[in-house]
Amino acid sequence: MHLENKLNKIKEILLSEEDVSFLTPLGEEGIEKLQKILDDYIHKNYEEQKPVYQTMAFATGLLPNFIVAKIAQEMLNPYIVGQVTNYLKPKDAARIGQNFNLPFLAEVALHADRFHLSKITQELPFEMAYKIMRIMIQKGYFARIGELADNIPESLLKKFLERFDDPEEVARIMIHMENLNIIYAVYRTEKPGRRNAVMDALRRLGYSDLAEKVENHL
């Protein structure tokens, strides 16, 4: 199951919904090397284009929000919009974002800086942010949601998770979280039945070690 998660991360980087199981023969080490190559390429491209993104971010303040959204969705791709978003104030980005269609924003979320994205998420209306997250879950973008979960307030994370009916969805998000203290804090307040269902899902996915860590801190 760990290999499956690495393959899903590759899909997120490539913004692809195609089956990438053909990469399985590379093994975990080979897939990690491929991911590093892709990450390095994206970072290099970002550094080269940074002045362009900064200029585009400045230009958004000169146009009505709905015009900015129309131009971005029809003429740019989610990667470019994600990079431009990094140079907008969180409140401004959230205000402009309310003029975009949600599936497009779900793709943009993959490319914005995760720390900046967490601040933008806090500025969005909750229902809108939740709907975007649901789209990301449907597309299997659990790695990015896990990164987001690490950086939003515990109270907001708990509010999101309370809306998820499927314990496996919650488990897949937890797998990609690095901040165990947030997981412990959130799950101390969970009802025993739901908490047990999520722990069972973690074990089915091959993460018994994480389930035990959480249970030992309750």
| Domain count | 2
The residue ranges in which pLDDT falls below 50 over 5 or more consecutive positions are none
What is the CA–CA distance across the termini?
26 Å
* Mass-distribution shape: globular
Topology order in helix (H) and strand (E) letters: HHHHHHHHHHHHHH
- Beta strands, count: 0
Short description:
This protein has helices at 2-14, 27-59, 65-75, 78-85, 90-97, 102-108, 114-123, 126-138, 142-149, 154-161, 167-175, 180-188, 192-204, 208-216. It is an all-alpha fold and 218 residues long. α13 runs antiparallel to α14 (208-216).
Describe this structure in words.
This protein is mainly α and 218 residues long. The protein folds into two domains: 1-141, no CATH class; 153-218, no CATH class. Helices cover 73% and strands 0% of the residues. It has 14 helices and no strands.
Short key terms for the protein model shown above:
73% helix; globular; mainly alpha; 218 residues; 2 domains
